[in-house]
Each structure stands twice: as C-alpha cells, then as structure tokens.
Amino acid sequence: DAKTTQPPSMDCAEGRAANLPCNHSTISGNEYVYWYRQIHSQGPQYIIHGLKNNETNEMASLIITEDRKSSTLILPHATLRDTAVYYCIVIDFGNEKLTFGTGTRLTIIP
Amino acid sequence: GAGVSQSPRYKVTKRGQDVALRCDPISGHVSLYWYRQALGQGPEFLTYFNYEAQQDKSGLPNDRFSAERPEGSISTLTIQRTEQRDSAMYRCASSLVAGSNYEQYFGPGTRLTVT
Hints:
The complex is a heterodimer of chains A (110) and B (115). Chain A has no helices and nine strands. Chain A is mainly β and 110 residues long. By secondary structure, chain B is mainly β. Chain B starts with a strand and ends with a strand. The mean pLDDT of chain B is 94. Classes of the chains: A mainly beta (110), B mainly beta (115). Chain A binds chain B through residues 32, 34, 38, 41-46, 49, 85, 87, 91-103, and chain B through 4, 31, 33, 35, 41-45, 48, 55-56, 59, 89, 91, 93, 98-101, 103-109.
C-alpha cells in the first residue's frame, strides 16, 4: 500500500473550516484514500473515503487532486468535538488491513 | 444499534500468564479485525477473519499470539506467556463485507497491562 505523509499537528479556530492535507505520491490506480479519526482514547472512527472523485458526506468533504497524489480532508465548520488525531490511509482494492501512520493531531481553538 | 463490543475493558495480568481478549462484532458483519495500539501511536494490524476463516495473520508478532472466530461471530485473541512488551490497547473492528470499499467499525478496546 502507498505510504502517506501528514503534518504532525494543526490548529484551527472553532467555526472555521479545517483543511487537513495528505500526500500519497506513490498511490496506484486501485488504491482508495480513507480518512479515520481518533478522539482521545476512543476507537478510530471512519470519516470518508474516495477513489478519484471528490466526496462529501455529513461529516466532511474529501478533495482528491486530479493526479491522485494528494488529498485534503475538509471539516467545514470545526467544533471543539473535532479535536482528534486524523489518519489518512491508502488501501489497495482487495486489501483488508488498515495501515495507520502517525496522523495529524488537530486541535480546535475556542 | 449495538456497536462492536470488547471485554474485558481493562486487564492486568502478571508476566507469564495467558490472557484471552474477546470481541463481539456488529451483528451480521462478515469481516473482523484485530489491531494493537501502543500509546501515542496509530493502531497496528494483527489479523483478520472473513466469517470463521482467518485470512491474514501476518501482523501477529510471534507464536504466542493466536486468534479464532469459530462460528463466524465472536472472536478471541489469546496471548500466551505474556510479557511486559505485550502491554497495549487491543482493538477489534468489524465491517459489513470484506473489501476496501467498506469502512471498519472499531470497538472501545481492551487495555492490557502486564506487570
């Protein structure tokens, strides 16, 4: 599976959009981009995933560049409850296991 | 509906003892995964099942670790002759079907401490 690179930490003001980048320059055509987050000591929580098109759900939007070498997770109106570690994971079609890196620790500032 | 449950939530054991960690996946979920998470790190894959069949155990650290899912539902991760380095959070996840287009739902984890 392709490796991912994320900034170790980010801050965002409450109510503003949080934009979390992820670099996956070695991604191949069959690999999906997944985002999970982990709030404090809870289990990881699925946020969103995509293959090549941009995706949106009730939690977030995922923007994948045309060459698929990077993506951005957007939380449109960040709240204090969005403070968490966010993991960008690239997973091959047909592969089952998630390979978590160190993620980005997002802190929402009141 | 009920999510993934794990028991016990906390387990303290002495070095050399065996422990069994239980995972109860979401009803009807085909795939079940075990991960281990050290403090300050992301979860690390251990093994996974589709139904009762163990599909991949490449992440099990050594032969002291084993897992089973005999009836395709509840799973048990067993660690024999525990060592202090086995101390970690052990997390279970399940997904509706096998495949990379389906999200995994994680349980609350079992915090194992080996003294």
